[in-house]
Amino acid sequence: MKHTLRLVVATAALLFAAGAGAQALTGTLKKIKDDGVMVLGHRDSSMPYSYVAQGNDVVGYSQEFALKIVEQVKKAIGNPNLTVRLLPINAQNRITLMQNGTIDLECGGTSNTADRRKQVEFSNSLSITQARLLTRKDSGVKEWSDLSNKTVVVTAGTTSERFLREYIDKTHAPITIVSAKDHAQAFILLQSGRAAAFFMDSDVLAATMARAKDSTDFTITGAPQTHEAIACMLRRDDPAFKALVDRTIAGIETSGEAARMWQKWFDSPIPPNGINLKLPLPDEIRELFSKPNDKTL
Fold first, then answer.
1. H-helix or E-strand containing 105?
2. Among 169, 189, 191, which residue's Cα sits nearest to residue 178?
3. How distant is the alpha carbon of residue 134 from its chain centre?
4. 23: closest CA among 95, 103, 78?
């Protein structure tokens, strides 16, 4: 009789704890649990962060972080069979799609800035990058001052576009801006001669140049104009989900796994064509991995 009573009490306690745990889920975690689906926003051509390698195979440095976060979400909501849906996004619509609940997480090449944090939240940083110029070696463009009376292409919706437009507004520099829908289209405009330079994050420029058949005709040049932290994007006012994402990223970075991921995507042959960006882990990012944080730069 006593044994039966103890069993009933123990079972009730477990059921209560499980119910309490379920009720404790809020925000994005509750949404994912209720829907049975987690939607990841990804980029099509932001190599090596997030891109389509072949067919519908989404790969990249940031994408690996995203998939590791998914595994922790499965544990948090108690659903190992959670459906994960990949949704292609671009620099122009990514913030809106996060705000309206279409996507639950975006780990691409998005910069964590003070202005953007008024609209969305950011995780611990995955990388640090700087914006420079990609141009033909014979273009005559070597420094920022060489852009006078020339056309510069930028990817629409990026911090690089915003920086260049603000620079022109402040200095009245005679520079013509052309906005492309993505990095791939921007490079096509550069290749075709419709732009003298492509202004973007230097690591993205290195990847864009490396995958081109005429890569030896181009060079990355000019002093860096921006200094930005790349992070995963999530909805604001959701401390439980942010804590899970930050904890996952911090574990990856402090364990040494992030350094191995960096070598895999930035300093080794990558799909689909085995190009090597030859960008060893910088000391600044090594320091970030030792002390993960979500600071803007």
1. strand 105-106
2. 189
3. 21
4. 78
DSSP code per residue over 120-180: SEEEEEEEEE-EEEEEETTSS--SGGGGTTEEEEEETTSHHHHHHHHHHHHH---EEEEEE
In a 3-state reduction of DSSP, which class is residue 269? coil
- What pLDDT shows up at residue 7? 41
| Size of the chain, expressed as the number of residues it contains | 297
Residues ≥6 apart with Cβ < 8 Å to 60: 43, 46, 47, 48, 49, 50, 51, 108, 265
Find the helix or strand (DSSP H, E) in which 246 lies.
helix 239-254
| C-alpha distances out from residue 273 to 211, 212, 219, 264, 270, Å | 8, 11, 20, 14, 7
Give the predicted TM-score (pTM) of the model.
0.86
pLDDT of residue 211: 84
265, 230 contact by CB (below 8 A): no
pLDDT at 23: 53
Q: What is the DSSP letter of 58?
A: E
Question: Average pLDDT by consecutive 10-residue portion of the chain (297 residues)?
Answer: 43 41 81 97 94 92 98 98 97 96 97 96 97 96 96 96 96 96 94 97 92 92 95 98 98 98 97 93 97 96
Burial status of residue 129 (CB atoms within 10 A of its CB: 0-12, 13-18, 19 or more): buried
